[in-house]
Design a protein that fits this description.
The protein is an alpha+beta fold. It has a single domain (20-99), classed as NAC domain (Metal Binding Protein, Guanine Nucleotide Exchange Factor, Chain A, Beta Complex). It has 1 helix and 3 strands; from the N terminus they run E-E-E-H. The protein has one helix at 84-99, and strands spanning 33-45, 52-63, 70-81. A 3-stranded antiparallel beta sheet has the order 1-2-3, with no helix packed on it. The longest helix has 16 residues, at 84-99. It starts with 32 loop residues before the first strand and ends with a helix.
């Protein structure tokens, strides 16, 4: 999240919400519109350039719903880590080792 309200870059972290219970589609709708993916996914590489560690998606906000939705100038970048579960597991083990032993 932004440090001050006038910052031009803000960061938000949240879990993905599925559009349907048995689907991989992500629900990005709000009461006043929705975020739509533009362009293709871009791979994020580690510092050595040897391994893909995630994906970046660009999204644009469309005000309204359905065919009457109007594209706005609001852009958001969505990042997905392909390594998050591994790092979360390691962090959990290390946390337990240091604080509960």
């Amino acid at each position: 999240q932004a440090a001050t309200p006038d910052d031009e870059e803000w960061y938000f972290f949240s879990e993905l919400q599925k559009k349907y219970a048995n689907s991989d589609r992500v629900d990005r709708t709000t009461k006043v519109g929705s975020w739509k993916v533009t362009g293709g996914d871009r791979q994020i590489w580690d510092n050595c350039g040897k391994e893909v560690i995630g994906v970046k998606k660009n999204l644009v906000f469309h005000k309204g719903h359905g065919s009457k939705a109007k594209k706005t100038s609001w852009v958001i970048h969505e990042y997905h880590s392909s390594k998050a579960s591994i790092h979360q597991a390691i962090s959990s083990v290390l946390y337990n080792l240091f604080f509960f032993i």
